């Protein structure tokens, strides 16, 4: 169940300058899957506010924006976990053209993200991010277009507050750490004929660790008399890096009154982040500290695949469509890692084949659809 409200105001401050102010609030209660293995009632209370100033100037379209999102999440787990997350972002960008063929965008962003440590509190974990980005779109000709974008983020992590008794890594200085990463994408689109389009693309993405993964959880668990394991965040967790390559071909086919497409792609993940597992200890106990279980970088993984899709019309009112995707995944777990226990067993849990077949009939106010979805065999995690 949920209750939601929102507000959106737009003011024309000048002929070429506009101010937009938005706000929202939501109270949602739902049952969610937590940690991949259990279900819990969750209550989410979210509110947000955003102001955007946009102006068309002699130097391009300049946009300044600031917003804040606040989320209170209450989970009926481990006696009750209450997290409060606040994100504040300010950004400035300029979109401009140089001649008729070149479009550029340059921008900068500041982000502050903070979260309380739970369910045993008394501390906060946060980070500041400074980012610079740029984009260049080049209309080489009517048939050829290129787009390139680059973004550099510097994340500065910190922690303040107390630790539970006998906690491992009980030193806030361990969280004084910077992460600097670059994300990028490049696309080349070519239309050799009016019916054919070929696209080649490359992308490098960065999945930064969340604040929960980097320290937002603090929970001692008594697994046996006199033996306690601390579930904790990991300040040394690396971001996961994904690199994608794709070649796509699309063609309009008059004979079937439709089109067909072919995609060949690969995806390469480095330093995949894992779930917490109590099947083993990530941090060994000492005379003064408990053993610890935490989030770790558990594996690399590579995926390659092919996708084919085709659609058309049998009559003016009757259309059809079909697609099939084949994928092959190879995981490379790090030494000593059980990918199933860590929820990074993508080689086992990804079906090699999946596809769809559908027809639709439309006439006047009536529409009828029929669809068949197929997924080949695959394994999944034991939920017990």
What would you say this structure looks like, in words?
The protein is an all-beta fold. It has two helices and 20 strands. The protein has helices at residues 212-216, 346-349, and strands at residues 2-14, 17-34, 38-57, 60-75, 81-98, 102-116, 118-119, 123-139, 144-161, 177-190, 196-207, 217-224, 227-232, 240-253, 258-273, 291-293, 297-313, 318-333, 353-363, 366-375. Strand 5 (81-98) and strand 6 form a beta hairpin. The longest helix has 5 residues, at 212-216. The chain is globular, with a radius of gyration of 25 Å. It starts with a strand and ends in a 9-residue tail after the last strand.
Spatially, the strands of the biggest sheet line up as 1-2-3-4-5-6-8-9-10-11-14-15-17-18-19-20
Helix percent reads under 10%
Instruction: Tell me the total number of β-strands.
Output: 20
Structural class: mainly beta
The overall pLDDT, averaged over residues, is 94
Helix/strand order, N-terminal first: EEEEEEEEEEEHEEEEEEEHEE
Main pleated sheet: 16 strands, antiparallel
How many helices? The count is: 2
- Radius of gyration, in Å, reads 25 Å
Name the poorly predicted regions.
none
Q: Strand share of the residues?
A: over 45%
Distance linking N and C termini: 27 Å
Envelope shape:
globular
